[in-house]
## 1
Amino acid sequence: MSHVTIRLRTLWQLKVVTALATMLLTALAAQAMDKAPLRDKWTVQDVATLASMRLKEAGRRPFDPSNAYEQRTEAATLGRALFNDTRLSKNGQVACASCHSADTQFQDGKQFGQGIGTGKRRTMPVMGAVHSPFLFWDGRKDSLWSQALGPMEDAAEHGGNRVRFVKLVHTYYKEQYQAVFGPMPALGKLPENASPSGSEAERAAWSAMHESSREAVNRVFANMGKAIAAFERNISYGESRLDQYAQATVAGEGRGQEVLTQQEVRGLRLFLTKGQCITCHNGPLLTDHAFHNTGVPPIDQAKPDRGRAEGLKKLLHDEFNCLGRYSDAKPEQCGELQFLATNDPSQLAAFRTPSLRNVAERAPYMHAGQLSTLEQVLQHYADSPKAVLGHSELARPGEKHAERQTIRLSASEIQDVAVFLGTLTGPVVQTK
């Protein structure tokens, strides 16, 4: 080997060593920057709370024992088609996607849901619904598939009836249906329109049907809901700036905390402390999945919404609940339903705690869109008004309260919390 060759190889080796050293120094510098002292100091308890609020703590999507088909790709494909089919309505113009649009956070941005007619409550988003044990503002449904069935026969939403829907599935989706659920049951001769919860004529037609036909229709109808649920369970929230901040704080990465401004951090501190927001809006989805009366003013003072108190009655009498004959669950798998307190006075005019994820993108607010801005919502809690119906669980000034303290927020503090809530916005994720 020539001296020239040896010299060239030595130079090449020096270049490699220099490059590796440069990469190592760069990595160490980056690590040092990340491990720089934390800009924002938190107590050990606060860090633990922030850790629990990270979206990844939600874990895998929970399995619903009442729906044996929810994890099948073919079911989700059929469910997507049904979710977007406007033929599943009385006037052929309303689909699930009409109120739960992918372009608007899988809700509609309106004060009241708008289908065939106008509803009485705000449309709730689909994201993360798979984690909730009860659905709708009043919790009258206990599964995604059962929830999907309710609007179809509601006069203000799809306004249809189950016999017509099942006929449509038989005509347009028979092959897809049978690929998921097996042979479609023999339906026999069916009336044009019939339902146990429709118009007087539809109810009469339903009663006149043979029991086996009613059973067959109900089975297909329930499976429609199970297919839609298989599609909906794959729609979830993506990580927000709060998740990045919480992760950086837990990991001790100083640079990572810069994802939030100082005002947003002030709002976060208020959220966790004197604002008492964390009391109900906790965990990775920022909801306790419970029902609360917080004195939100009703739309109709003369006829206030009874909320959870009425929803409980509907849930327990629902033929499509977890304990019903169309559920795939064993009775012991329906614990949430079997141990419900039916005589709890706190459930009167109580409504489900919504997730605060993406909340800044979902005005108006409260169960009937009573408040237009986040600032108005925060001011409501600071004012703690008396409930028109039932008893508000918020503590009022000068009132002794066993569980809560009066919420006292200044105008600037309300603004800080409202700004912080904007950090909860992340992408909407659809997975298979």
## 2
Amino acid sequence: MSGMRTALVCGAGGFIGSHLVKRLKQEGFWVRGVDLKYPEYSKTCADDFLIGDLRNPRVCQAALDRRFDEVYQLAADMGGAGFVFTGENDADIMHNSALVNLNVLESCRRQQTGRIFYSSSACMYPAYNQNDPDNPNCAEDSAYPAAPDSEYGWEKLFSERLYLAYARNHGVGVRIARYHNIFGPEGTWSGGREKAPAALCRKVALAADGETIEIWGDGLQTRSFLYIDECLEGTIRLVRSSWSGPVNIGSSERVTINQLAGMIMGIAGKNLTIRHVDGPLGVRGRHSDNRLIRGKLGWEPVQPLEEGLARTYAWIAGQVRAGGAQKT
């Protein structure tokens, strides 16, 4: 490790965290990962991997037993609409994620960590600004008066303020990004916590030409989706900048869920019928407003959604062929 830059990735067993470890290793970092589990779909690239629960202060102290140049705090209790918006997981979401952030931040303060990145979410934006699917307001300065549409969003907003308070009171070098629907290969694609791109890729992969797939709601709700590689690029640029954020990291390419499904069908070469059914939906419209990130970092995501979907569909279709899954 002598002379090497060092990084800690909290949540390194998850989708974004495992990809981030690979990226940091490519840049020559010595990387420690920490999570409740190893990555599900590939072997970790971390030099050291600690299996542990970051809700436990002792685990945080063990993970942060030295000063790291960069700490990435991605660990959270989260999932897609089927997990976040049912109301059944609210207490766990708020309790677990808040505890992790409190513990990690305090350990970073004690070790005088160089920079700590916190992955917030676009779910913290007020629901009242996202009623029009064609004209949502997700500019960073629109966060207040606060009114997130879920307890997940409220916890993200609280934790943003926690990180900023540590920056003011303790001089911790924090960086905060609000992620907008990150997707790609090796992400959760079944089981109830998957997000829309993965869920629809799975449904299309499982369906034979001419069959029917289900979509929650009328499919006219809009979102933007960001491929994992661009998420990592924006995250690392922010961490190594002189600016704390918060800032959106997401795509400005807004699509309806019906359009998203149509893109995936086109990639798969399948003609399927959509049946709209009741289900948890979230807000009617959301996409990333990238004016601030362009101004502060001179960068924004540019990859067309369809390119990332093609890579993601190919990977999920391979998973389906290898092990199968339910169509729900």
